[in-house]
Amino acid sequence: MDKVRETALKALYKIDEKEAYSNIALDETIKENRNKLDERDVGFISEIVYGVTTWKLTIDEIIKKYSKIRLKKISPWILNILRMGIYQIVFLDKVPKSASVNESVNLAKRYGHKSSSNFVNAILRKVDKKDYEEFFEIKDDIERISKTTSMPTWIIEELLKDNDIKKVEEICRCSNVRPKVTIRVNNLKTNKDELAKILKERKIEFKEGVLDDFFVLKNIKNIENLDLFKEGFFTIQDEGAGLITLIVEPKANEIILDACSSPGGKTTYMAELMENRGKILAWDLHEHRVKLVEENAKRLGVDIIEAKCEDATVFKQEYTEKFDKILLDVPCLGLGVLKRKPDIKWKRKREDVVEITKIQEKILETCSKYIKPNGQIIYSTCSIIKDENEKIIEKFLEKNKNFDYAKIETSKCKKYIKNIEKTGKVQLYQNEENDGFFMCKLQKK
Question: What pTM was computed for the model?
């Protein structure tokens, strides 16, 4: 039995049937089978799990083409075996079709019965790359984009409210690009030149990030097992998240609130930029997520962060006008980070927009009472829908005349964002290099 594909199958089962997040399901399943796997195996398992999760809609359309049995009637184990086989045949050139078919049939024998393996064999032998290519001939724009980029139609329709069809197609296509591995240098423990020297000595491939404190690593696996990571010389962070922190412009000795802080990437970066002087209150709704912030702070040698379990929607009198700056990286649909979390596409529904925007409005309204006069609030999401972004801000400013947009300082990030000095808001859509996100800077008059 192929332990590698079987491990991937178990992770996909957890994602589908137990509604586990793809990264958590993958990590758990690999740990459970670690003694049977080497580093190459882990890479291939990750490829299959993320690949199948990313391309599920497209793959299921191919299954429908050849199966007389409806998807809902197929055992979840057999359905995921079919998805794995089709992903390898259609999207992975390095795997011979014969190997994909044979290993899928063997898995079906173990997780089904004789007719299951015959069913899998019959379908996979018919599948070809042209099954995917045919989707590009679809005349209806929404259906074509949906099937060629594996994107639910409701997301495409939402994006079409504010973008033309060409832009929407690019956003959907770039949501499937495998993300880069970026790290942020911890200047409290080292500096960029020193870390670059160590990476070169260890023959770890890297290039300069767009932002000053970042490197992009190449061909790196299990990065969290490196002693450099464990000792806090760097942390793993997307440059978009780093950019949001730079726009906060945290300064030494300020008192700052990070109201939705876990796992603490932006929180710890603020502390580093403050040279570990001042105070940051870091809140999260769940105790286990507060611990993540504390663990990250400890690893990076940061001691000005006070992490607490707090609900940012509930007003607390003792925090009134207490903070110089407040970062509100609010909960959102996460449609700007689909390349990192592809399962979001299948977990979210159109009606979630209404529920999530209520929470966002409440957090902004409540926390606005905690800012000092002349203080600044930075509101951000990893979303690309106006309802979660500009419309929230417009509604808030209409109700709160004592706030207005603040100029965004871009001297440290001009290569990343151009020509935004005159506005206090930025909407970036995902492309080949970056995730999609929104950020806005408000000042209390």
Answer: 0.92
